[in-house]
Amino acid sequence: MQPHGGIRAMLEEGHRRLSVLDEAVIKNIDACKRLSAITRGSLGPNRMNKIVINNLDKLLVTNDASTIVNELEVQHPAAKILVSAAKAQQEEIGDETLDELVEAGSETMDVQNKKQVVSRMRAAIASKQSGKVDRLCSLVADACYHVSPESPATFNADNVQVAKVLGGGGLRDSTVLRGMVFKGDAVGSIKRIENAKVAVFAGGVDTSATDTKGTVLIHNAEQHENYAKSEEAKLEELIKSVADSGAKVIVSGAAVGEMALHFCERYQLMVLKINSDFELQRFCRMTNSVAILKLSQPGPDDLGYVDLVAVVEICGVRLTVVQNEEGGNSVSTVILLASTDSILDDLERAVDYGLNTYKAMCKDSRIVPGAAATEIELARRVKEFSFKETGLDRYAIAKFAESFEMIPTTLAENAGLNAMEIISSLYAEHANGNAKVGIDLEEGVCKDASVMNVWDLYITKFFALKYAADAACTVLRVDQITTAKPAGGPRREQPAGMDED
């Protein structure tokens, strides 16, 4: 019996292969539509919540599209292309040109002007926290202003951190602090120190273990006492050498031993513990210090400097504040207060959107009308262009123009408005030359976006269109899907009351 030829002979038994129009292209289009249907309800200020159960059976209630997609762990190859396009839009910033929709004079924006920054940031934050826009915009603008470099194009969003505190009076009690804020108390009894040098030890502050195992034979109590004293003397010598270097604050990236803490108290050294490697790197960047691998005497170039290290209490939660005004203070912290963890997570996502918007406007500050005004104007112009074409191309161009209607349609549907009436009104206004007319979701009518003060960054619109078009073209060019045999192992059990679909 002769073996099967072609691809079946080349791949292991158990593989899947989809080809031709019905199997590959249509299935890809259907997968992309299903992903779009899941995330459509998360667009605009009147977004809807989704309940997501991830692979660890953790239940999440969120209205953030990126969180939904990440927690679902999309596996379909075509849908993954859309997810990759969305992530690329968040990471890439460009400097292309569009058309006369760009607001005149917006390219000369001053990123240090709080009023101009807030006006460009409102739309991004309103999509996540529509009722708290003014307060959140003010917090994010202040935090960005504190760490904004002389060259705005080099702004780093990682220099702004978020500290979440459960309790308090909510967002009205939230504030911005110049410097870093760590959750937790200082290790030891010293809670405040000013104008001090800092030594950072990434490997912890404790007696170091030998690389190889050794055996010590102790015959009597005197030998045991001498052995313990020698270990204590060596540790005290190391702590004393740190104090003699001029350091007043020790920062540990790992455990702090009790004996080491005893000698730190003796030599009046404040001890902080930072478990996160990322936070430790941020601390070193802020204080201009160098992280030393193990406990030893630091050199002059290894030491950093802080103006203030203090432990404060906010709503019953102890926080450690580190400030460095003299060193440029390259980090600021937004302290968010709320009554539940889910509200804190939503506020944190809104702050992240604001930071990314500020980063984008530092590179390209041009703005276009928001509230779906730009999408309708583009749809109108592309439709007019399709009428000038001949042959089958005009139908493809017309369908591409219709795709822009998805944004105003979704905004209207999420707000409970009649989408068909809104789209018709928008087209009528734009046909009369009112290119800035968008949707007022609060009143349910069409209104000038400049009057509502709703603006979107041009660069965001440009890359959304660019990556969406590239992803759609990539999906449509696929004519075959071949999946290898899945790896072995037991299947994960379905939670009770759920089927495989």
Description of the molecule:
It is a single chain. With 501 residues, the protein is of the alpha/beta class. It is 43% helix and 18% strand. It has 16 helices and 18 strands. Helix 4 runs antiparallel to helix 16, helix 5 packs across helix 6 and helix 11 (373-388) packs antiparallel against helix 12. The protein is elongated, with a radius of gyration of 29 Å.
Which descriptors would you attach to this protein?
about 500 residues; alpha/beta; 16 helices; 18 strands; elongated; disordered C terminus
Q: What topology does this entry show?
A:
Blueprint: H1 7-10, E1 16-19, H2 20-40, E2 50-53, E3 59-62, H3 65-72, H4 77-91, H5 114-126, H6 133-147, E4 160-166, E5 175-178, E6 180-183, E7 192-201, H7 221-244, E8 247-252, H8 258-266, E9 270-273, H9 277-287, E10 291-292, E11 304-314, E12 317-323, E13 332-338, H10 341-363, E14 367-369, H11 373-388, H12 393-403, H13 406-414, H14 419-431, E15 437-440, E16 445-448, H15 449-452, E17 455-457, H16 458-476, E18 480-483
Parallel strand pairs: 4-13, 7-8, 7-10, 8-9
Antiparallel strand pairs: 1-18, 2-3, 5-13, 6-12, 7-11, 11-12, 14-17, 15-16
What can be said about this structure in brief?
This protein is an alpha/beta fold. 43% of the residues lie in helices and 18% in strands.
SSE-based structural type: alpha/beta
Number of helices: 16
**What is the helical fraction, as a range of percent?**
40-55%
Main β-sheet, in a few words?
Answer: 7 strands, mixed
How far the N terminus sits from the C terminus, by CA atoms, comes to 40 Å
Extended strand count: 18
Query: For the residues shown, what is the average pLDDT?
Result: 78
Rg (C-alpha, Å): 29 Å
**Spatial shape:** elongated
User: What fraction strand?
Assistant: 15-25%
Unreliable residue stretches: 93-100, 497-501
